[in-house]
Automatic annotation (TrEMBL):
Annotated keywords: Monooxygenase, Oxidoreductase
Domain 2,6-dihydroxypyridine 3-monooxygenase substrate binding: 160-279
UniProt xrefs under SUPFAM superfamilies: FAD-linked reductases, C-terminal domain (SSF54373), FAD/NAD(P)-binding domain (SSF51905)
Gene3D superfamilies in UniProt: 3.30.9.60, FAD/NAD(P)-binding domain
Ranges annotated as spanning the membrane: none
PANTHER family: MONOOXYGENASE-LIKE, OS06G0597600 PROTEIN
The name this protein goes by in its record: FAD-dependent monooxygenase
GO molecular function, a single term: monooxygenase activity
Lineage of the species this protein comes from: Bacteria, Bacillati, Actinomycetota, Actinomycetes, Kitasatosporales
Pfam entry (one): FAD_binding-like
Native organism: Streptomyces thermocarboxydus
Length: 371
């Protein structure tokens, strides 16, 4: 009899793991706390070679291509240009592709996990409202702010890295021609004092930007993470919920700090949003018949570049281990965990070491891309 698997979290990592587990023959259901499919808010995903397996599973979906990398100084002068091809996808488009490949009928929405329990034969997820789902394996893929991780490993929590990321998306046609020519078709980096900007192409003649800015912990960070209803968010103030005053201050800072063509891009994003940059590590990824994958286990700051790729690797390697052992879930998890723990530890430690050794913004110039 095939193993039953409950996946907590219906984002990229959870859907990817569910898809691979389903294709090994497992009986899989995904439980997502949000009641609706995510909107396209301008988040982009780098598609390095390690995600080729994911692309093959999903079939065709729109991809943005950059054939060069450009580095600009604070005055807008081009420091250097390097031929280097990268592919980017819209986060929302990739999510839809995964959801279609898995089947929407396997995803249960409006299910927020509130408890986890297990005995020697099975594990169970408890959801708000009283529903209990028992399975041979529970896979926790509920992201950086993971409730599952808090339940299993309460001492492993997100630690603020000292800066935030403003993100947004702009259509090339809304930019002045000079700005579009400077930024289109390339990954562009702008280095500024204590911050930097990265611009990358997205499908449909769109440009995504992320602006990393130092921000001390305390009142300034609290204010930045407070949404338009006055609610303080733990990690991200999503698109459409950032107060107008915060957006205005961000755009004024861009106009003051950036050369015109970068400032134009930032100022024309219709719904920019902001997120706190954090590090997350765990001492273990397996607790009995329950495991943590993706950002629920390890979240790395830039410039590690590998968050999405690591989540994909966690999922398909877990499915491969389950496929080899069938219902012998503890044996599969014992085989799977050591390499994934080592991968996660090296990812987070490497990114932190780069930031400490030369300062985050200096280090990023030595890396081919940042996500």
């Amino acid at each position: 009899m095939p193993p039953r698997v409950v996946v907590i979290g219906g984002s990229l990592g959870g859907l990817n793991a569910a898809l691979h587990l389903y294709r090994t023959g497992a009986d899989v259901e995904v439980f997502e706390r949000n009641g609706h499919e995510p909107r396209d808010d301008g988040a982009g995903v780098l598609l390095p070679p390690s995600t080729e397996r994911l692309l093959a599973e999903c079939g065709a979906f729109p991809v943005g291509v950059a054939r060069t990398v450009r580095h600009f100084d604070a005055q807008g002068a081009l420091l250097r240009e390097e031929p280097r091809a990268h592919r980017f996808a819209s986060w929302a488009a990739l999510h839809r592709a995964l959801l279609t490949a898995l089947g929407r009928d396997r995803v249960r929405r409006n299910h927020a996990v509130v408890g986890l329990e297990q005995d020697g034969r099975s594990a169970a997820a408890l959801f708000r409202g009283g529903r209990i789902e028992r399975a041979d394996l529970v896979v926790c893929a509920d992201g950086t702010g993971s409730t599952s991780r808090r339940l299993l490993l309460p001492r492993s929590f997100p630690r603020y890295a000292g800066y935030v990321a403003w993100r947004g998306r702009v259509h090339e046609s809304s930019l002045p021609p000079s700005a579009a020519r400077a930024l289109a078709g390339a990954v562009s980096f702008l280095r500024l004092p204590d911050s930097h900007v990265r611009v990358s192409p997205a499908p449909g003649h769109l440009l995504d930007f992320v602006w990393y800015r130092d921000l001390p912990d305390g009142r300034a960070l609290t204010a930045t993470l407070t949404d338009r209803t006055g609610t303080q968010r733990s990690l991200t103030v999503p698109a459409g919920m950032v107060p107008d005053a915060s957006v205005r201050r961000m755009r004024e800072a861009a106009a003051e700090m950036m050369p015109p063509f970068f400032a134009e891009l930032v100022s024309r994003a219709p719904e920019p949003y902001v997120e706190q940059v954090v590090d997350v590590t765990v001492p273990r990824m397996v607790v009995g018949r329950i495991c943590l994958i993706g950002d629920a286990a390890f979240t790395s700051r830039p410039p590690a570049t590998a968050g999405a790729a690591k989540a994909v690797e966690d999922g398909w390697s877990l499915a491969a281990a389950i496929g080899r052992t069938g219902t012998a879930v503890p044996d599969a998890l014992a085989e799977w965990e050591p390499a994934r723990l080592e991968r996660g530890r090296r990812l987070v430690a490497g990114a932190c070491a780069l930031g400490r050794s030369a300062g985050l913004w200096e280090s990023t110039a030595k890396w081919p891309f940042i996500v």
